[in-house]
Amino acid sequence: MKLKFFPIILGLFIFFFAQNVFGQDFVVKKKYRDWAVYSSSSNECFLASKAKRTASYFNSREVLGKNRQNSFIYLSVNKNKTNYSMSYFSDYPLKINISGSMNIDNRKVFGIMALNSNENSRSEHAIINGFMKEDITLLLGGNRLTIELQGIDGSMLVDQFSLMGFTKSFNFLLSSCN
């Protein structure tokens, strides 16, 4: 059943990034605490949040001095508001074909996989597998979201995102975007 939703999620992810590649500019429509609603001139919208804390670990020890400050998580909704997709952008190259996890307040863990965007083995994008409409309630009532993925150098990347402002951002997205 998980494989059934993978093409939908992958398609939404590719559509989102293809729009950026072909010049569709997204601007902040509304910001609530740690989350922002972005929209384009064609009223395509998504939510985004920047990581509050980024860390890298190698052999269970934190690697200091690794400049990681621009990790983001994205949530988009299809036009019928029935399917959701989440993706992650790391500011450090991710190891391809190695699974990671997204954890919401230690209540539910989702699988996450780095995308191979071209021939080289460097990718900074990943999609969250198996994210369903019912999982939105965990985000609405949650406090923290944690992403763990392996970097290309073998280090474990751990990024923490705040869910403060998610509820208002999500409600605004549903009410004002097509």
Could you walk me through the main structural features you see in this protein, from its secondary elements to its overall organization?
The chain is an alpha+beta fold and 178 residues long. The protein has one domain (2-176): Invasion associated locus B (IalB) protein (Immunoglobulin-like). Helices cover 20% and strands 42% of the residues. The chain contains 3 helices and 12 strands; from the N terminus they run H-E-E-E-E-E-E-E-E-E-E-H-E-E-H. Strands 1-2-3-6-7-10-9-8-11-12-4-5 form a 12-stranded antiparallel beta sheet. Strand 4 (53-58) and strand 5 (61-62) form a beta hairpin. The longest helix has 20 residues, at 2-21. The chain is globular, with a radius of gyration of 16 Å.
